[in-house]
Every structure is written in C-alpha cells, then in structure tokens.
Amino acid sequence: MKILHTSDWHLGQSFMGKSRLEEHRLFVAWLANIVEQHHIKAVILAGDVFDTSTPPSYARELYHECVLKLHALNCQFIVVAGNHDSVSVLNESKSLLRTLDTYVVTQPEWAALDNAVIPLRDEQNTLQAMVCAIPFLRARDMVRYEAGQAGDEKQQLLSHQIQHYYRTLFSEAKRLSGDVPIIGTGHFTVLGGQKTESVRDIYVGTLEAFPPSKLPEFDYLALGHIHKPMSVGGNHCWRYSGSPMPMSFDEASSQKSVCVFDTETRDVERIEVPAFRELRSMKGSRDQLIYEIEQLPCSEHLTVWLEITVTEDINLGPFQEQLRQITEHKKIDVVKVRREKRLVDLVDGLAETATLEDVTPVEVFDKLLLEKDVSEERSVELRGLFQQIIMDDEEPNS
C-alpha cells in the first residue's frame, strides 16, 4: 500500500490581502491526480488544514470537495488538527466524513484509543498499516499544572505526558498490528527542524522542541508544522512533508513536495508539487527595480506576486504609483513594498525607527530582557512564559 503524507495546507489563507483560493483549488486537483496515477490508498494530512480558527466558507467547501475526490478514488483520508485549526470547526463535520472513509482526530483520545489508532486496509480488506493519529497536543489537554510550579517543572511534566501518550498509542497499535508498519503523526517542532518566517512558534509551557529520541520506533512518522520538507532524527522515514505551497516569500525558493511511504518496501519517495503561482522578491535601487520589473516576462499561469525592497531612502508613495503603472497591463501584483531597515535596537537607540512589521513581539521582548540585564537562567523562564502568553492569545478556541 502507498500512503501519501502532506501537511500545512492553510486553506483560506489571506496572503497580504490576497486570496489563495485558486492556488489551493489547483493543488487539490493535482493531489487527486497524483493519488490516481500512483495508486495511493491513503492520504495523511498532518495538521493545519485551515489557516485560522474561523476559516471562510469557501475554504471549508474546498476541504469537503477534497474529501469527496479522495473517496471517489477509494482513498482513505486521515486528518489531524494543527495549531492553526479550531477543534470545534474540524469536529463539526467529523461524524459525517467518517462515512466517506475520512478520519478526523482533533484532541488526544485517552479514553477511546480506537478513535486514534486507525487500521489501513487494502481492497481485499487485508491490514496493511496502523496509524497512530496524533494531532497538535495542547498543554491544557495533556497536563494539570499546580500553583507555584517552576517553568522547568512544567516543561518536564509536559514532555513526560507527550512521551507517555505517544507510547500508549504505539503500544496499542503494536498489539493490533502484527508485523505491518506502524505510522505516527505529529504537529510540533522536533529538535533539528528548520522554521521559516511563516511558521508560528509553538511553545507549550516552555517546551520549544521535542527530542526525537523520546518518540517510539515508528516505521514512518508523518510530521507537520515546519513548512520545509526534511527528515528528522537521522531517520529517512521520519519526515516533515512541508507545505504544498510557499506561505511566505522566504519559502518561495524552496521546492515543495509531498511524501509517499510504501508499506511493502518501507521506503519514501518525494513527489514535487508544481508552483501554481510565482512569488518573487526583488531588492535594489528605485531605477534598478523599475528596469527589472519592466523586463519580467508575462506569466502563463496565475498572476505573479512581488515583494519589493528599496535600498534607497525615498518617498514610497510616488514609487508605488510608478509600479502600478508599469504592472497595470501585466499579470503582476506588487503585494509588498518597503524600505530596507536595520533591526530595531532598543538598547542604545542608535538605529532608525522601524515599523511594527519589521520586528516580532519575541524580538522586542528579547531586547527588553537584554536592556534590563536579566540573567540567562531567568531569561529562559521569562521567555517561556511570554511565549505561553502569545500562544494563549493566538490559540484557536475549541
């Protein structure tokens, strides 16, 4: 049996005010073709189905269209929630989708392990693999902290509980599997994962990344959250599939892909996802940028989106009007224009003032810790608490 692993679709994403619906439609159509051509019998979506906890109706419709396409191809579909996903939104169609061979897991299933340990069978009803379907594990679902607990105690408790849950599901799958492969899923940062600017850091308590050595010996581990395709823990079969399309300009140069695990050979093949839309970053002086944009060839596909960084201290208003005139009859949209700036220096105030888009809350907090001369040990604890505040503020409501 061939099992396709993908993640981080972020359906409904608004990219600097631009809808990505057409790109996502093209991806879903491409995915259905790959499933048919490569005789894929199961697809695992390892989190972040949607971009926000309140996805627009067209994003939900596309999700359900994908379910129908896969069902028509006799392909099972396993969906686990990511940190961007709302538990309640995914749960609202969970029971209905089960009738279409789609299994949705949004929270840890301590009391009903059979809801999270999913058998995959071929057309002859022969067991081919067991899947431990594990979503993004929120701290509130895993541990009960006591008042006065130190940050490192919370970290150790959470780490222990995550390890315990993984091993509990693995043991159950092992009991039922015989000698077929056991596949795990996860949506978090495993030590060694490389993040991009569009990846929202997941800090639960003060747990920044989970050591791969604490995970069971899965035959394949389907991970989500990191948008770059990569293996982890030195294991070719433990992988981040990466997102199917660039979620930010710094991902535009990275080749996107999905992974296919073969239960017979127990090997992994990467299949490249075509770039449905070009995202291009350009940097230089005003005259240089004008010339380069004028020379850009016309796109044969979707409109090209440009990020422009001007290395001169100019008035952006007239420059943006120039850009509008140049691109008016081209399939080009300039979605971001900015002047080059240095990072804000909160310590000595020597750097020029930056806008809020130039820095993240974490960078500001780190500068404040430095300014106040906070010890390294205390900084680690405070940084973890600050990350928890950010996570609580951004976390989708269940």
TrEMBL record:
Residues 1-229 form the Calcineurin-like phosphoesterase domain. It comes from the Bacteria. GO terms for biological process: DNA recombination; DNA replication. Keywords: DNA recombination, DNA replication, Endonuclease, Exonuclease, Hydrolase, Nuclease. InterPro entries: Calcineurin-like_PHP, DNA_Repair-Maintenance_Comp, Metallo-depent_PP-like, Mre11_N, SbcD, SbcD_C. Residues 276-370 form the Nuclease SbcCD subunit D C-terminal domain. One of its GO terms (molecular function) is 3'-5' exonuclease activity. Pfam families: Metallophos (PF00149), SbcD_C (PF12320). SbcCD cleaves DNA hairpin structures. These structures can inhibit DNA replication and are intermediates in certain DNA recombination reactions. The complex acts as a 3'->5' double strand exonuclease that can open hairpins. It also has a 5' single-strand endonuclease activity. Heterodimer of SbcC and SbcD. Belongs to the SbcD family. PANTHER family: COMPONENT OF ATP-DEPENDENT DSDNA EXONUCLEASE, NUCLEASE SBCCD SUBUNIT D. This is Nuclease SbcCD subunit D.
